[in-house]
Amino acid sequence: MSLLPNLIDGDWRPSGTERSEPVYNPADGTVLARVPLSTPDEVDAAVGAAAEAFPSWRDTPVTDRAQLMFRYKNLLEENSEEIARLVSRENGKLLVDARGELRRGIEVVDFAAGIPTLMMGETVQGVARNIDSHSVRVPLGVVAGISPFNFPAMIPLWMFPIAIAAGNTFVLKPSERTPMTAGRLAELLLEAGLPAGAFNLVHGGHEAAGALLDSPAVRAVSFVGSEPVARQVYTRAAAAGKRVQALAGAKNHLLVLPDAADRDLTLDAVMGSAFGAAGQRCLAGSVAVPVGAAADPFLESLARKAEAVTVGDPLEKSTEMGPVIRREARDRIGEYVERALGEGAELLVDGRAGVPSRGYFVRPTILDRVRPDMAVAREEIFGPVLSVIRVGTVEEGVALVNRSKYGNAASIFTRSGHDAWFFRNRVEAGMVGINIGVAAPMAFFPFAGWKGSFFGDLHATGKDAVRFYTETRVVIERWE
Ligand code: NAD
User: Fold this and answer.
1) What's the mean pLDDT in 387-406?
2) I need a surface site. Which of 35, 54, 426, 469 has the fewest CB within 10 A?
3) What DSSP string describes 117-144?
4) Which domains does the chain have, with CATH numbers?
């Protein structure tokens, strides 16, 4: 079984560690590869290579850095089907979802190719007599990225294209559960002509990630993962004097108003949001909040649809939902359902039975009569479980959303402009969907999680990311 190599200073090097983990295909439990748990010394070597490569990459004309992004984009397009299949195999999401995440990632490369415009500074002439002032954006140095399992292509692509286009050098530590896609993204980056050391890939778990957080040569850290880890990463890296953006977990609510309840658009959007990618998206709808008379017709139609979902091999065309990432994830999801039933929730659709015998599957599950104090209402489950909390009014629904410690995303389904207006202005979430189930991030906007869904100031992607990966220098000059 092949042990995945690290990429350090342009060389694919086998890790010297004796510790490694299997990378499973979650659809059938077979082992696809082994991922090394690289040592802090190996992380230091990668950071050292990035630090050495930095001055020359920084001084490479911005137009050349932009051209590299165009070449990289072309290579990603040419190899997109192969990459999507790799994502699907190691993550378990449907091929169509894997293609979708790669498309969103390539859009970040498109955005990064505009770096000459994005990095432009500002000028004011005559701030005093004979004195002018201007600002420029300069890269930081070595930037580190630590990514989660659920978007093996898109999330690394949120990070390194913009950082590298801005003139930084990069060290990526991908998820140890879905590490293979990152290797392919790295190979294509070299093929596009990026100099040795400007991008490095180190496989591993929390120890390798921790070494990046502590390394004095790393100037900034982009992290995406669960809330407890994001909180730790933010604290540890900030204490080491670094700039940090840590995107965290979520508990997203979907308000369904009576005027939208029985529409196909609403039902399909809620289905896609709750059960797409087996609920393993940070933007997944996790709590449905039917308002007033919406509840009964909405739940009846939704239950019928959820029961009919075809679960199985994500590479099969007829499959509508794939597995969850690991056996432990499946068991944890089952425990949440058991606990909710013990606390008085009603099982409207039971997703525990009728799953394929191999692999890690849970069918769509709907829990009705959930109360806000239950664990399934408050905590991120990260699986295909939709909790239903019935409310009387839109105001009550918004108050319920705002009690969550998270603030990643929230959606409303309605034909009322007034209710939509009220929702988007009062709800405490950074990504808001109006008749949209997944308020998806776009490359040219920041991914704007709030509250416990984000630790930091400048978000990923968009102009926020350009600011995150650059420092502003302000020059004031006098010429007699
Ligand atoms: P995770 O927190 O388990 O792991 C994320 C990364 O952190 C991995 O690379 C892992 O090796 C590393 N890590 C683990 N422990 C660490 C530690 N103590 N210090 C430093 N690094 C450590 O997350 P996951 O299970 O891979 O991903 C799912 C989670 O990510 C969910 O909570 C989901 O909501 C969240 N997520 C958030 C967003 C967002 O944009 N807000 C996007 C995708 C996923």
Assistant:
1) 98
2) 426
3) HHT---EEEEEETTEEEEEEEEE-SEEE
4) 6-248+453-478 (3.40.605.10), 252-434 (3.40.309.10)
